[in-house]
Amino acid sequence: MIDPQQQRRFALDVVHQLRGAGFEAYWAGGCVRDELLGRRPKDYDVATNATPPQIRGLFGKPRTLPLGAAFGVITVLGPRPAGMIEVATFRQDAEYSDGRHPDHVTFSSAREDAARRDFTINGMFFDPVEGQVIDFVGGQEDLREGVIRAIGSPQLRFAEDKLRMLRAVRFAAAFGFAIDAETAAAVREMAGQITVVSPERIAMEMRRVLTESGRVQGIRLLIELGLAAAVLPEIVAHDEASRIRALQALDVLGRVQAPTFPLALAALLAPQTDAALVSELSLRWKLSNKETDEAAWLVEQCDALAGARTMRWSRLQPVLAHPWAESLVALHAASALGGPDEAAFCRELLAQPRETLDPPPLLTGDDLRKLGFLPGPKFKTILQTVRDAQLDGQVRTKEEAQQLAARLAADISPPT
Question: Any idea where the domains of the chain sit in the sequence?
Fold first, then answer.
């Protein structure tokens, strides 16, 4: 577990060590943005004029990882609670032939390094020793004005890495900012090219769009800028009324607590999408099996709690005993799929001890075999019928369950 205070102290210590060795060194990128917004940075990056060999020489090979050395990046390992810091040499980038990484880099100055970054709010440096912001790109003004603006030509920035179009949406949504007109126009122009980005990277951005604050605005921007048609056509296919309901559900979910990614995805897609389409989307984004299964189950069961108060317990219990039942109740409440008190009723039932909510079955397959029943198609029917009778209070002991099983076996046996 990373301790934020120790992480910050280590990031400051890295700067001090580089400065002590005669190099320039600043905090860079997102941590500077978060500092100026009054947010706690999730991590810290350091930018310096020291080269990768000089960085490794200063901190020692045992404490450094050269995983990004080809791009001027060395990872410096700190004490366990402090985590690690990426230390990058000021650089200029060549062309991005693969749409993600520069073909090669040239080490440069801090000003030139800032010019190759994505957005002005991410292009600033901060001197933590002097407490001074170094801003070559107008990032401070855009932070004050609440604007997401590409550094330099937005077409060039997006051509270098198409994922930056999704990142523009995510930043605008998360911070409640507007996307400047020229940057937004470039996204509309190039939105179809987002499909060249790997599915995993698209999914990573979409996870954050759907689970962080501003998720509703994020989806609206995806639709408005043409990105939804490329990355999430399922919502574009919805009629306007269905999209409004989906966005309302997303908004309601976020008022209680940040939803999980499968829950947010299900809220966006249900009830206009079936589980098969969720699986297709999951394959397209290469989601994990767990994410896929949970989102598909939630979509498939989205109306399973309708009329819960009047439902037989043997029908409602299997749904509430499911591992994802709490997410389903949240989806049901957010989507306004039933009466106003159905979700509260289901939450009361979920608050019961597990042995009350999901008591062990009175009869199992092993029990049937011991009684002389031969495995076959009627096995499942008998077990399910006995289980339903148990849940509905029609049988209360193992002996009663066995007697019911015997009657059922006689009733469904084929005539001789």
Answer: 1-145, 146-231, 260-359, 365-412
CATH of 1-145, one of 3.30.460.10, 3.60.15.10, 3.40.309.10, 3.40.50.2300: 3.30.460.10
Class of 146-231 in CATH:
mainly alpha
**pLDDT for residue 377:** 79
Distance CA 121, CA 90 (A): 18
Residue pLDDT, tens place only, 286-305: 999 999 999 999 999 999 99
Name the packing angle between helices 377-391 and 313-320 (round to 10°). 100
Nearest to 44 by CA among 87, 107, 90: 87
Whole-angstrom distance, CA of residue 24 vs CA of residue 48: 5
Q: What DSSP state is assigned to residue 121?
A: G
The DSSP letter of residue 119 is B
Kindly state the tokens that stand for 32.
């500077």
Name residues whose C-beta falls within 8 Å of residue 113's C-beta, 6 or more positions apart in sequence: 28, 47, 90, 91, 92
CA neighbor of 300 nearest in space, from 324, 334, 336: 324
Task: In whole angstroms, give the CA distance from residue 116 to residue 120.
Answer: 10
For the whole model, what pTM was predicted? Answer: 0.88
**Residue appearing with tokens 């009054």:** 38
Q: Comparing 233 with 414, which gets the higher pLDDT?
A: 233
373: tokens are: 């029943």
Helix (H) or strand (E) holding 289: helix 289-300
What is the rounded average pLDDT of the residues 120-143? Answer: 97
Query: 137 in helix, strand or coil?
Result: coil
Whose CA is closest to 210, among 281, 305, 275?
281
Cα distance between residue 11 and residue 86, in whole Å: 9
- pLDDT tops 60 at residue 339: no
pLDDT tens-digit readout, 101-112: 677 788 899 999
Calculate the alpha carbon distances from 80 to 76, 136, 175 in Å.
12, 34, 31
